[in-house]
Amino acid sequence: MTNDSNKLLNASERMMQKLASHKVLVWAAALTVGFLIVFLYWLRPVQLPKQCAFVTRGWTQPSDGRSAFRPLVVVKVSKGSILWNDTAVDRGRLEELASQSSALDPAPVIVFEPQPDSGDCETEQEVQGLIDKAASCETSKLCGLGTQEEWKAAPPLKLKNGIE
Fold first, then answer.
1. Which pTM was predicted?
2. Burial 78-94 (b: 16+ CB within 10 A, else e)
3. Do the beta carbons of residue 119 and residue 125 sit within 8 Å?
4. What pairs with residue 76 in β-bridges?
5. pLDDT (tens digit, 9 = 90+) per residue, 19-75?
6. Residue 70: CA count within 13 A, CB half-sphere
7. What architecture does CATH give domain 59-152?
8. Are 59 and 129 in contact (CB under 8 A)?
9. Distances from the Cα of 93 to the Cαs of 77, 111, 153, in angstroms?
10. Rounded CA gap, 131 and 137, in Å?
11. Is the Cβ–Cβ distance between 115 and 150 less than 8 Å?
12. Which residue, among 83, 91, 85, has the nearest Cα to 133 in the 3D structure?
């Protein structure tokens, strides 16, 4: 090999070494940025859903158990509308349906499903109050709080003396 060829070969090898070290630096920088993003995401403030509805006297929750004989009616507040089994109703109709439901045989469990993203606690509390009054929840024990999925997966009702 000639002297010029050796110089060219050496220059080429040095360039490859520099390129390799730059690749390592680029990868290290990319990993550092990635870890930083994940760390900052982990540190972000967590918005916990505001709970607007509460289990009150006469209201049950899925952990109390579900009757095998009683159907479920689900009431929600979504985007300012009151939904009775996914059908929009006004406050008067809600009271009427809740009152009529408690007279059915078997009477359904009226499940109020609070929406964590509704941002309208006042309306949710008002709707729960309307259901409570119209369905006589304190005495009927036919009002529940939770999601439809939770209620469908609820354990069987714990019976007293084998009578529901």
1. 0.64
2. eeeebbbeeeebeeeeb
3. no
4. 83
5. 666 666 666 666 676 665 655 555 554 343 456 667 788 898 898 888 888 899 999
6. 25
7. 3-Layer(aba) Sandwich (3.40)
8. no
9. 14, 16, 29
10. 8
11. no
12. 91
Q: What's the residue count for the chain?
A: 164
Say what the pLDDT of residue 76 is: 92
Amino acid found at 27: W
The residue extents of the domains of the chain are: 1-46, 59-152
Q: What is the mean pLDDT of the chain?
A: 79
**164 token code pair:** 């529901």
Distances (CA, A) of 134 to 101, 130, 144: 9, 6, 14
Tens digit of each residue's pLDDT (9 = 90 or more) over 69-100: 889 999 998 888 899 999 999 999 999 999 99
pLDDT of residue 161: 62
The contacts found for 86-93 with CB under 8 angstroms, 24 or more apart, are: 91/126, 91/127, 91/130
